[in-house]
């Protein structure tokens, strides 16, 4: 396995999965209301989710790290906001091949989850970089100011106005958890374009139906909704991730299966606390 292939796939896993979401310095709470928002019924401040990460090397599943996601009540530019943080850390086994230390932070409007601000600081291999996004909503759509610090410490800035709603990897996760499962059927496609501080990517969800899933190392078993997360890049469509969320109002992710060029990876929910709604999907 070449290191460059491994690092590319690790980066894709952690960005596209963990999941498996921005504002001008002058934005006001009223301006944040847009058709890009969605009503939040899935989570609340105080929720904490923790995951174990596994890779399949030569037909053996090896634990290579952990991830955690937490949401707290905060303020942004003087207005109440949700602050959601995702931290991923490789363990000693992974460090021997590829160092991974990522921290993602997102601020979203409490009223409708409109993205306000996003930051990713990532140490991946020997490379450290930062992505930042600030969002405004002229004409109800997204205008994004982007700032990137590359591995050489060079700063680049750009500002792009979109004629559609656009999200980041953190806000898209929060938004997806609030879809009304009663209004979708197997095979339905849900467009969910995302951006970082470099470019926009065409991504979407495909609803695959329902399955039961028992959490690894636990007696807990849940009825789950199953989705595929798809990407089109360079004219090629790829299923990046298949993920399982509880079939209740929490839509809590409990398992993610990731397709890699060199094999497979999985993320399993290990612990959870502070969920908003009853876990009625528990079997």
Give a concise summary.
The chain has 283 residues and is mainly beta. Helices cover 9% and strands 52% of the residues.
Write up what this structure looks like.
By secondary structure, this protein is mainly beta. Helices cover about 10% and strands about 50% of the residues. It contains 3 helices and 15 strands. The protein has helices at about 5-15, 90-95, 170-175; strands at about 50-55, 60-75, 80-90, 100-110, 115-125, 125-135, 145-150, 155-160, 190, 195, 200-215, 220-235, 235-245, 255-260, 265-275. The protein is globular, with a radius of gyration of 18 Å.
Shape: globular
Assembly state of the chains shown: single chain
Q: Please write the string of helix (H) and strand (E) elements.
A: HEEEHEEEEEHEEEEEEE
Q: Uncertain runs with pLDDT below 50, 5 residues or more?
A: 1-34
Write the topology of this structure.
Elements: H1 3-16, E1 48-57, E2 60-76, E3 79-90, H2 92-95, E4 100-109, E5 115-124, E6 127-136, E7 143-149, E8 155-161, H3 169-176, E9 189-191, E10 194-195, E11 200-214, E12 221-233, E13 236-246, E14 253-260, E15 263-273
Antiparallel strand pairs: 1-2, 1-15, 2-3, 3-4, 4-5, 5-6, 6-7, 7-8, 9-11, 10-11, 11-12, 12-13, 13-14, 14-15
Fill in the keyword field for this structure:
15-stranded antiparallel sheet, 52% strand, disordered N terminus, 15 strands, 283 residues
